[in-house]
Amino acid sequence: MNLVYLGVDIGSVSAKAAVIDAHNNLLFENYIFTQGDPVGAVRTVLNGLTDALKDKYRIAAVGTTGSARRLAGAMLKAAAVKNEITAHAAGALSLFPDVRTIFEIGGQDSKIILIENGIVSDYAMNTLCAAGTGAFLSGQAARLGTRLESFGALALKSETPARIAARCTVFAESDLVHKIQTGAKKEDIAAGLCNAVAGNFLNNLAKGKKITPPIVFSGGVSQNAGVVQAFARLTGEAVLTHKKARIFGALGAAILAKAAPHNSRYTFILPSARFITRAEECTRCENRCELVHLFQNGKIIDTLGARCE
Prior knowledge:
Elements: E1 2-10, E2 14-20, E3 26-33, H1 38-46, H2 49-53, E4 57-65, H3 69-76, E5 80-81, H4 84-95, E6 101-105, E7 110-116, E8 119-126, H5 134-143, H6 151-156, H7 169-181, H8 186-205, E9 215-218, H9 225-235, E10 239-240, H10 248-259, E11 275-281, E12 290-296, E13 299-304
Parallel strand pairs: 1-4, 4-5, 6-9, 9-10
Antiparallel strand pairs: 1-2, 2-3, 6-7, 7-8, 11-12, 12-13
């Protein structure tokens, strides 16, 4: 039976799963929306996994990443629980071994990762503002009456992109409404939003960092051709992406699981136990950490959020 490795990326907006073989070939993938339920998302994103792999493969190790990586790691007895920077870098490097700069824009956050000799040398991450993320673009697409999947193609039709101030979500939405009210074309507004997303990323997250090609764009927003074009124009460099770029985190988690020490007797079982979380504010010191306890069948198996001993 062939050994394979599972990577699971549980984010605030979407959940991804990827299964690779010993040569990092992608055998299975899935992508769903988390819908505010990371515990349920772990089960849902892995539904059908046993049927997909049938009796030909055996999962030898699991890796998890994303904002709910520790929770997913506890549920799946993961061999590797890694942050998004490490996982996205590993995923991108597996398909673009010469990459030097990674732009990643997900549903609720964005990252720039600098690579030197195949190793992360620097990075920056924005988790505080939604302007320029997938959720922001999704909201604006709905406002324009356009499907998010066709938003990039619409932007490419523009000859005179509108100027949209996207440094703040509130200002961007106000600016967009003003453009609509003045009769601007939908394609010009879409192009303006794509330009604003790329400009906001480069002027804030990438400020002071040396952007060296090859540049790879990952995350869900990388599938938006308008944003890809905007990045290429603003950087003056080719910006590479891939049809699997939105699952780079899960792919990287699987690769890291393969490299991590793992139990040779590990048996993957889709979690059927009852998992619940319970929040608590710890009062044992002045930090007053906001803790989240993970229970399996009534027994606590992990605690997240502690900033001290």
